[in-house]
Amino acid sequence: MKKLSISILLLGAVFASAQEKEKEQQIEDVIIVGNRNAKRTKVETPVPVDVINIEKIQKSSPQITVQDLLNYVIPSFNSVRQSASDGTEHIDPVTLRGMGPDQVLVLVNGKRRHTTSLVNYQNTVGNGSVGTDLSTIPVIAIDRIEVLRDGAAAQYGSDAIAGVINIILKKDIGGSASLNYGITGRNDGETYQAGVNYGASLGKKGSYINLSLQLNQRGKTIRTQNHNLDIFGSNFAYDFAADPAAARAADDAIIKERGLTRDDFNFQIGDAQIKQAQLFFNSEYSFNDHLKFYSFGGFSIKEGEGFGFRRLPSETSNVVAELYPNGFQPVLGSKVYDLSYAIGLKYNKNDWFFDLSNTFGNNIFNYNVSNTNNASLGIKSPTSFYAGAHSFLQNTINLDVSKNIKNFNVAFGGEFRFEQYEIKAGDEASYARYDIYGNLVTASTPSGDIIGAGGSQSFIGFSPKNALSKSRNSTAVYADVSYDLDKKLNIDLAGRFENYSDFGSTLNGKLAVRYEFVKNYAIRAAVGTGFRAPSLQQQYFNNSYADISTTGDGIVTKGIFTNYSKAAEVLGFDKLKQETSVNGSVGFTLKPARGLFITLDGYWIGVKDRIVITSNITDSRLQDPNIVGAGNEVESARFFTNAVDTETKGVDLVVSYDWKVGGGNLNINLAGNYTETKITDFHFPANLQTPQNEFFGPDQVNIIETLSPKTKATLGLNYGMGKFNFLVRNTYFGKVTRDGYPFGGVQEFTPKVVTDVSVGYNFTKNINLTAGANNVFDVFPDLQIYENSYFGVFKYAPVQMGTLGNYFFGRLNFTF
Q1: Pick from 451, 538, 533, 461: nearest CA to 121
Q2: Alpha helices in 464-504 (DSSP H)
Q3: Residue 493: beta bridge partners?
Q4: Residue 140 backbone phi and psi in degrees, to 5
Q5: How far apart are the first and last CA of the chain?
Q6: Can you list the alpha helix ranges (DSSP code H) found in 34-132?
Q7: Backbone φ, ψ for residue 736 (5° rounding)
Q8: Beta-sheet pairing, 49-53 with 711-721
Q9: DSSP class of residue 234?
Q10: Which residues pair with 737 in a beta bridge?
Q11: Mind listing the pLDDT tens digit for each residue in 84-104?
Q12: Hey, what's the torsion of the CAs at 774, 779, 781, 786, to 10 degrees?
């Protein structure tokens, strides 16, 4: 905190001398997102838009992925790596302004990008949502990122409730390359990244093709402790044993007898290992002065390896002792394929602009589980399984038309989108339960003939009953008009009508106004309605999964059922419907000196019928094979439902200043965000007979209201002088609260400040070396209270800045 205070004092001194020192004209970025007026800059927009120069920031920052870079640049953006959370370990959920990952729309070159096929359901940030995997886009392929911090459903359609992230790909002529190596202060989490980008002219003026290849490898980290485990007894921890010392001594005797050490029983909990290869392209060809063809897209393959909860020898229903006499810790492997491409034609004549495009995206997530067993098969069980896959396909056709008429810009168009979601079954042994004779368990199988739990431990495979293929389409028309009067008055009015084949129609509008009442001083405001259609994943995802019992005394099987299942019907759940929202914002933009830019924006977002996943509902009917199907009986179940209304309010502050000082250039960026989300109402299904704590309990309320920092701020100082460049950046993560319900406690995590530093040196105008550190002072979240730590295993919770600790890096950058 002392270093942060010094930096703020320095910032105040800079402001005092700003008008005298600054001599250069600020470069004003022309923006694409937020309106369809191609002549606007970020200073003139009626709503807040951040323009992030990725190449410049990535050159000096320790972070190497899109989501990590944005996490340390935009305070209202949050992304934290998760541990022991199935697929969510391999695709980081991202949020904007405290909303869910599925309430942020991602565009590439202004075109809608597909989401991942993964549903977050392991009680992480964004629980019950489906987001976009930003890590599939290589950093070296990106020119800049525009972040629209305002609701934009009336302009772009579903998912744009919190805002829009628009990723602009490079179209440079020439080449660049980057080599990166990093490692944590604990000698793990080793990262390698190599990328190359090359652009070439296609002969005609303005025609180009730009190619990017990037390879990444991130090693696993271990951030756990296991000193309290009662390894061979009937208790999970010595603290719960009648005689803790005797229980530990008994374990030690068995360990010594087997020639082992306690290290053989370590939990490996931390960041998953990730390997990834990405190939992207961006191209445009001019047939003549009026007609252009463009295409862009890419392919990414990601392989991940994370860890589940350790199965102890005492868990006889989960562990085959002949295979794993000391128990085991399952390994969840992922193989994620992501493909995207867009093609289009642009025609421009007499100030009329036409853009016809087709954008395709597909995400396939495969699961493999190893170092595990199907306990019901006993000694015959395999130790590795293919557990199935899910995929999501999206194809979008757009026609956009616009014309600039004096002070007016008129735009209109239409969109047709097709979506398909599939779940594919895994190996039979990954999901099935067998009797002692090797036969599949049925409703009539005697309980005495079943010796263990079915399916692969840690991640139970998708069965043929889970498998499905569902699709839908939507059709939309929109129109918007913008009015600009000598850069003094800007007015935007937008409307959009959209019809979905599976739930109906919606009509939304937006009005945004900016008025410059004194030169370089302006007020801006916006109000609009929005919506988010339930994703196909939320409508149809279903599976069985292993988790801690609702009583906290072991690993059991739980289930997620669709809203169309017989279980949902019997328990009285309603079918999913769309979320609706209202957004309001008001703010100020100030340019009191050349190079000094300040924005302050307050906002309010009300969401009705927000789609969430319930808590674990226990009901005797969930053990009835006639309802859930033989072999699918579960201790408890969860369902997607329009359970709550929420209200989000907050404020964003951004201050940027460029100052020539000491023979060099100093860039100062101060940005802060305060966001508060509250649940204002609950919607209980009329026929559901269950307590509120099981329908939507304190743990789920906690995820929405207090699991992400309400306050986040960053102060970055970037100084370039001669061949040297220096970066010092402090990021403040406000307090968060974690509720370990139903078997844990409520814990408040105190605020933390993370410091990044780097030094860069230009050997030549084409070669740069940068070295530095993220979290140089090795700051961690507070230690977890014991009852929230899975009996002492999870030393830290993945909140605030996560559990990586300090990370040191070196990077070589080349241009050619």
Answers
A1: 538
A2: none
A3: 481, 511
A4: -70, -15
A5: 42
A6: 54-60, 66-71
A7: -130, 160
A8: unpaired
A9: S
A10: 748
A11: 888 999 999 999 999 999 999
A12: 130
Sorted by where each begins, the domain ranges of the chain are: 2-226+266-815, 227-265
> Which of 591, 606, 615, 608 lies closest to 648 in space, CA to CA?
606
DSSP conformation letters of 11-52: HHHHHHTHHHH--SPPP--B--TTSS-TT-BGGG-SS-EEEE
CA atoms within 13 A on the CB side of 377: 18
* Coil vs helix vs strand at 185: coil
What is the rounded CA–CA span in Å between residue 742 and residue 740? 6
**118 contacts 338 by C-beta, under 8 angstroms:** no
Q: Which candidate, 626, 632, 622, 567, places its Cα nearest to that of 432?
A: 632
Cβ atoms of residues 463 and 390 within 8 Å: no
CA dihedral 570, 573, 575, 579 (to 10 degrees): -170
DSSP string, 658-721: EEEETTEEEEEEEEEEEEEEEEEEE---TT--S-HHHHS-HHHHHHHHTSS-SEEEEEEEEEEE
CA–chain centroid gap for 735, Å, is: 20
Per-residue pLDDT tens for 533-545?
A: 999 999 999 988 7
C-alpha to C-alpha distances, 567 to 501, 559, 570, nearest whole angstrom? 25, 11, 5
Tokens 């009508």 — which residue?
Answer: 497
Token look-up 């999901």 returns 431
721 residue type, one letter: M
What does the pLDDT look like over 675-725, one tens digit per residue?
999 999 999 888 788 888 889 999 999 999 999 999 999 999 999 999 999
Residue 652: beta bridge partners?
Answer: 601, 673
Alpha carbon separation from 263 to 225, 226, 260, 407, 463 (Å, rounded): 10, 9, 8, 72, 36
Which residue's structure tokens are 């080349």? 814
What dihedral angle (degrees, nearest 10) is formed by the CA atoms of 29, 651, 507, 679? 150
The pTM of the full predicted model, rounded to 2 decimals, is: 0.92
Find where tokens 């609702």 sit: 550
Residues forming a β-bridge with 753: 732
d(CA 105, CA 511): 19
Cα angle 162-164-166, degrees, rounded to a multiple of 5: 165
Calculate mean pLDDT across residues 450-473: 93
Task: With CA atoms as reference, report the closest residue to 496 among 585, 411, 576, 394.
Answer: 411
Rounded-to-integer distance, Cα 479 and Cα 477, Å:
7
Exposed/middle/buried for 343, CB within 10 Å: 0-12, 13-18, 19+?
Answer: middle
- Cis preceding-peptide flag for 742 (omega within 30 of 0): yes
Summary mean pLDDT of the chain: 90
Q: In angstroms, what CA-CA distances link 69 with 53, 72, 77, 431, 653?
A: 11, 6, 10, 39, 19
Q: Does domain 2-226+266-815 have CATH number 2.40.170.20?
A: yes
Predicted confidence band of residue 9 (pLDDT cuts 50, 70, 90): very low
List the strands of the sheet with 104-108, edge to edge: 49-53, 142-148, 163-169, 104-108, 111-112
Closest CA to 602 of 525, 509, 679: 525
In sequence order, the β-bridge partners of residue 212 are: 197, 280
**CA dist., res. 55 & res. 195, Å (int):** 12
Identify the CA nearest to 392 among candidates 116, 91, 113. 116
Contact 631, 454 (CB under 8 A): yes
Is the Cβ–Cβ distance between 84 and 330 less than 8 Å? no
Three-state SS for 786?
helix
Residue 668: Cβ within 10 Å count: 22
* Pairwise CA distance, residues 91 & 340, whole Å: 17
Angle at 344 between CA 342 and CA 349, to 5 degrees: 155
Could you give the C-alpha distances from 247 to 243, 251, 266, in angstroms and in order? 6, 6, 18
What is the reported pLDDT for 443?
Answer: 73
